[in-house]
Queue: 4 jobs
Job 1
Amino acid sequence: MGERPTIDGPRRRAWLAMALTAALLGSGCLGPSALRATRMKYNEAIRVTNDEQLLMNIVRLRYADSPIFIDLPSITSQFEIAGTLGFLGGWGNQYPAASYLGNGEVTGRDSPTLSFRPREGKDVSRILLTPISAELLSVVNAGANLEQLFLTTIDDVNDVPNAPQATVMVPRTPGRNDEYVRGIRLLADLFQGGAVELKIGSQVEEAGASDPVTTTDLGGDDLLNAAQAGYVYRHRGEGRYSLLKRDKGLVLKFRPGFADSPEALEFERVFRLRPGLNGYRVKSDLMENALDAPRALDEGEETIYLHMRSILQILLFLSKGVCVPAEHVEGRIAPMTLDADGRPYDWTRVTAGNFFVRSSRRRPRNAEIAVHYRDYWFYIPRDDVNSRSILAIIEILVSLEDSESHGAVAPMLTLPVGL
């Protein structure tokens, strides 16, 4: 028997190319491989660009410039692969050497299509200008930092101000929130220590009580119908009952043994609450009938009234944490507020310890998020966890507000970026 010829280098490479082509075309593994290779890259790119867009708009607002939001509602990516293969020769010496070589070709294409939608018109009005709901504060139970959430989203608690001037684009007077920050830090410590909890609970509105009725006027159907409609009868003494509205709302509740602690009593003093209670209702000032409810100012509130901010006010407040370069302050490129001594007021003090954006002429090496604006780099370092987590909170709040939108979709700009 004749000895089988060995396959030399050129023919070996040709065989390998044809085998690879056949494997790619016949295995059906392109889709899963493309998913593994691209999904997390898109995920990370969206996260980074969302953070950069948010930081850029915060910096713009510090300069009294217009914020612009462009959404990316969809990404469509098409993967294609094609190949050809052939073999012109055989074994033996009867063919020229070149005829032993096969030929193969593999081509691939990735064609992503990005759809951009500028947020404008009613979109901006509804999401950016409408005060957020107090019930959104319950996200602290999902891991949000209570101090940061109360610092950024609330203008005042029971008329204790949180630097409301900081939510003005060009403030004329300085804003302070020292007492407010002290109060929410006490609350944050109580929350971290397991002394209090924020939850959605059932509340009975005493202010809207009906005139008392006697038990002879009540029947089983009355009690059942009241319960089904969200009402409840409460005993008023001497066999008389009043019909009250039962609503679900946010409740701040002290766990047993903590209501009379020094921290709790100081928290209640700061925010003018009636001391020693086991719990307090939490309401927004903009809720229906909130301002008409009886308020026992002499003994302290039984309700925590919150003046909630809109997303735009939150971003304006955070913009005061941007470190403006000295030349921009001196050149009045950025709005400047004078203190009582006639010197430029340092607005970063209202967000100190929670949010701070640094600035540099050169691109920083240790930046987690950085944007270039007005010839400077504005950035948050990798080790500034507090500032980064506030951006995450705002992203969550914007997403929650945006999820309620069911209106018409604005025009989209679709860009095919495949080559």
Job 2
Amino acid sequence: MKITDIKPLPVWVGSRNQLVVKVETDEGIYGLGESGLSGRELAVVGALKHFREFLIGKDPMQIGRIWQELYRSQYFEGGRVLLAAQSAIDIALYDIAGKALNVPVYQLLGGKHRDVIPCFATASGSGAALIDDVKLLRKHGWNVIRTGPMMLDHQGGFTSEGDIFEPRESIAMTAKWLTKVREECGSDFVMGIDYHHRLNIAETASFCQRMPMGTLDFIEEPIRDESPEAYEALRKLTDIPFAVGEEFASKWQFLPFIEKHLTDFARIDLCNVGGFTEAMKVAGWAEAHYIDLMPHNPLGPVCTAATIHMAAAVPNFAWLEVRVTQTENLYYGQSGINDAEALFPVQPLLVGTSFPVPTAPGLGIEIDEKLASAQAWKFWEAPHWKRRDGSVTNW
């Protein structure tokens, strides 16, 4: 069996783009993967075009060797653009291998440890709406709930749509309302917050210190991750567990965070870290340090399908992020239609608060290529946020 083509399929789904990659072979077996570099899809398409030129004619079953060739056969190796392309290819090759051998992908990874993949939901409301969101999710059986930071609009009211973010304003409001959530909704569920690397060390420490102990079970990406030393400093200032790693584009980026125990939940993203080949190495490394995986999954159904297989195949797993719940759905567009349902006629479906582990060969997902070509890529730019003084800050 030989690779005959690598097709980038950038497609608009809901309110954002997804970059699906199809790897075809001369035996008619194909595999699907997905790139994780949301918002910079065209850069990844360029990398895929470079990789295509020397991958055509290769044996798709030589997955590990291909991973090494993709990574090492260039002077400027690594980086988020190249690894996002490499991740998609690696995932697609595992899909091909599973189909060729007539087994689910998790069988290629050592078999399954669990029958269902537990998930966590996100409550995105602000103020009293946050309490309503948490109560709604709890009513539907969710026991692990993530929240987000609050921000003010120009008139002093809550907003999630503005372009002004003042960290000190946000941490005061957010800490206040998270405390109220615990008071009204109880302590018998896991609650965390994703601060989306919007704070610095002092702001994060102040935020954590404003709440009673036990309010939060984890804080995700409170500061940027370029400097592990910054997380070392932050670790000394708070006892709330960290969830870090969604932007990491190799095992080497995970290295200091695992070895120095700067994360308590590894937010690994299959579509950024290098696909299954790299993710399984990180998973074993994390297991040796008693760190559970808590995979990042804000993309599309291909990412979800792939991550389900990884989650089934590792012993050290906590919860999978899912963004299609009673409080949000990333696949709904302005028309109110779930764009992903028709685009991916075969895909994993949530049952209650978890995904059943699939039994179909490969990843167990299919794409309608004709429909994908009709839902063309659209230019989309992440929000460019500012402080009130006009300076640029993180989104």
Job 3
Amino acid sequence: MHKLRSISSLAVIILLLCSCGQTKRSADITADSLFQIADTLFDRIDQYPEEVTIKYAQGLDVRYEADGIRVIISNPDPSARHSKADTILITAPSQRFICTTALQLGNFEILGLEDRIVGMNSLRNLFSPRMKEQMRSGQTVKIGKEGNFDLETVIASRPDYIFVSASKHGGFEALRECGIPLISHHGYKETHPLGQAEWIKLIGLLTGETRRANAVFADIEQKYLTLKDEVQQLLESERQHHTVMRTVASGRQLRDGWYIVGGKSYMAQIFSDAGVDYIMKDNGESGGTTIDFEAAFAQSVTADFWQIDGAFDGEFTLTDLANEDPRYAELNAYKQQHVIFCNLSQTPYRELAGVQPHYLLADFVKAFHPQLLPHYQPKYYRLLSK
């Protein structure tokens, strides 16, 4: 039996190698097997193309021209449709970068290029072991926080580029005055999960590691689309549907309202691809919005599942959740023990979830349709118990 399993695993690996970076999927390759195969992408990046093609990201446009690679960067958020786009002309690989958000760090981390990061702002929750070591050794320096950057440290770190975020507006002009080019990283504004992950190709272009970026993204795309297809096949055969309540900001009530992600957001798309009906799917927001607690409660009380985030030291349970507000225990999802929770204190969600949509999808599918992923261990979201 062990020999048969080994032969089966080898066959799957051979099939993957033969794909040479293509995303064509075979009925012989299941999502469960794809998530079990050891990652050997970096050992075979030469099998992937050097040229970058953008397929999902709405905020990236790559043009190969005679004088270099021109990248046009814009904000993909529909509400920022008329915002100014930035253009970068890449003529040679760059080696030194500063990141100012955890997601920007994750773009380098998933490519194994953390050594290119020479400076970071003061991130309280840092998970990457390699980055922790680089900061201990001084290879990567802290540049301070928004509005209070240490400009001398920034200049001394000699970055080629500084990544900034459109959602933060503190002190970036001071950085610009240092004469260092700023790049607005809008990946988190993408409304398609694969579009958000595809911003790793921008890192590949800037560092000259395009084959590496293409390899990693092809792996993400294949796993995501294979699992999405299997969910669709299951729904067609079983006509099985659930509803799910998506809440953020510790997953529960925020001040006087309930903060949710909009029906046009990337998370709403993941719910759809996972085969559930998001109860706020008709909401037109692509980001987050706040609604009245009573209104949110009325809509979510009969939902089959309830997905929440939060930072908690130790194991968070359904009992802990009900202790926060007894009304939570009245939700159908709570009664059925269908509360899906991501502990932000124990997972690298802020760093890597945006560039690992295949794991987010798999986590939800594991909860909604566990028969599709019998061997998969959730990475970010798990069902709570009492």
Job 4
Amino acid sequence: MPMPPEVRATCLAAAIGLGLLAVPAAAVESAPTPKPAPATKATPAVPDLLKSLPDSDKIDYAFGAFQRGFYLTAFEIAVERAKLGDAKAQSLIGYLYANGLGLPRKPDEAIIWYQLAARNGDPQALVELANLAALGIGMPVDKKKAANYLEEALGKGVVEANYWLGLLCIDPSSGILDYARAAALFKAAADEGNVDAVYALAALTREGQGVPKNEAEAARLMGQAAKAGHIAAQVEYAIMMFNGTGVVRDQKIAAAWFKVAAEAGNPVAQSRLARLYAAGEGVPRDLTIARHWYSYAKAAGLTDDWLEQALAPKAPKPDAPKAEEKPPNLPGVDAGN
């Protein structure tokens, strides 16, 4: 789940992931050492340095150090701000402890800092607490508690909590299974530009879970997510396009979408694209290209009995596969990301 907006805007690469802009995580505090200052000018301590900076009432400097991979510097500056009750600084400290960035990984410490930040006015800390509760990090797994944190965050204007709460509403283990609520939450998140939510809403609409079943609307939403770069949506949209589910059937366009997702490394797309080349559906029949793509899918652990037979060296052309296996009746899949 996302971290405070100042960091998330440039650093967040996935739900719990982090993409640093300049310095890799392994390079904590490892930037080139500056030339030593003259003996008469000792390097100021962080608190003194902070006082000398303009706008010292802000936490921007800690986030700036964080973004460059200087986690210890970020921590030291954030601690000084946290002592003054800065909720964003307290959230940042929690994030450093939760992920072991420049510090020993201590989820229990992270929880304390997030709780303090939430009490001091940072609702994003509630999303981080929900993440820890849902995953059982630093505390027992408690998805109802996670949902409560997210409800509170929503009440305080954290719009991305819509998506995370929606996921809990379709999780059978959460104890709050509610597809209609999930659909409404995903719709709210999708309206705010959350592509994952668009994909989730498309899946519910296709299956008629929480909303009336509408294959045309599902295809529209799936296409929207696919065009926004959502890899799983690209695979699902290709399958819908190939089978003519909610859209006019077009094998060539379906093959093009499979290729986009295959080139992004999705093994399901690689396997499906290999099938198309092996069968000559939507693309010219080419067993060499089919073997190429299937090799990637197999390396990722995804095997296909029909492809094994079709691509076997010197094997005669196999009989047509069963209807449930052969394109043009590709099944829907949970393609993953």
